[in-house]
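Suppose a colleague, Dr. K., hands you the sequence of a protein chain of 96 amino acids and asks what its three-dimensional shape might be. Before reaching for any lab equipment, you can write down a predicted structure in C-alpha cell form. Begin with the sequence itself:
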Amino acid sequence: MRNISKIKKYAKKFVMPSLNIYYISQNQGKLKIGFIISKKVCKKAVERNKIKRKIREFIRNMFSYGDFSILIKNSSIEIIMTELKNVIEKNINFFN
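The predicted structure, expressed as C-alpha cells, is then:
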C-alpha cells in the first residue's frame, strides 16, 4: 500500500476513460507493476486476474525497469489494451 500511495504522489500520470497509469522511472532496479481493480469493475476474480495478466505481459515486453501503478475503471479487456497500447506508443519517450 505504501508503494502505491508513493507512486500516486510522485509519479507521472496518464488519465484515460478506462484506466489511469502512474509511472516512476528508475534507471536501475527491476520492473514493478501494481494493480487496483475493484469488484465493481469485474465481479469475478477470474476476469480481474485475466486483465492483470494481459496488462502485466504487455508492460514486461515494453519496459525493463520502472514502477507502474494501474487503476482499472472498465471491464472490457479489448478497450483497456487498445488505450494502453496507444498511450505507450505515442508517449514512449515520456516513459524512458
